């Protein structure tokens, strides 16, 4: 058997303190998982069931890589996020066992074409093109659980050109990491290499070409993403 054209290279993300890389299978994103962000998006932050959207695996971008300002938007937003990397798969995972499936944690930036997302919401259409475009999933080096444990508190901040725009704490998540994994595994069979972007605090906003976006999470360091000219 031969492929009719060469398959794309395996998408992957860096591993902290190693030359190894973690292969990426899928990217799941939790929507509105911080109460203050839900309010700024015009939603009630009550603890309704979590919902998810996805990004293609090859949307991943390493720390320090310049991201081209994407086409078809005039309102590119940043969203600082804790990223969970799974090392074990499974379906119907019990919440009490969910953390056993985590390989490590990383800092992420869920880039969003907000104008496209808002238009899709108004028309009750899918968000796919507003969230799943090229270079839309910035993910820093993954820190193994053995090195950082399971962070559930700690500052999560984002700055643009040195000015802090988002300043929250991981403890403010509406749905915790174990709850998110357990809930998601009831809908799909999770696999090693799946990434989960766990939502963003309040303070999302726009960037323009020439901006430098920095995201930090206590215990995981920081990542930096320059925004380049329009693609």
Question: Can you offer a commentary on this structure?
Answer:
- GO terms for molecular function: acetylpyruvate hydrolase activity; fumarylpyruvate hydrolase activity; metal ion binding.
- Keywords: Hydrolase, Metal-binding, Pyruvate.
- Pfam families: FAA_hydrolase.
- The chain is mainly beta.
- It has one domain: Fumarylacetoacetate hydrolase, domain 2 (Alpha-Beta Complex).
- Helix content is 13%, strand content 34%.
- The strands form four sheets. Strands 3, 4, 5, 8, 9, 11, 12 and 15 form an eight-stranded mixed beta sheet that branches. A five-stranded mixed beta sheet has the order 6-18-17-13-14, with no helix packed on it.
- Strand 1 and strand 2 form a beta hairpin.
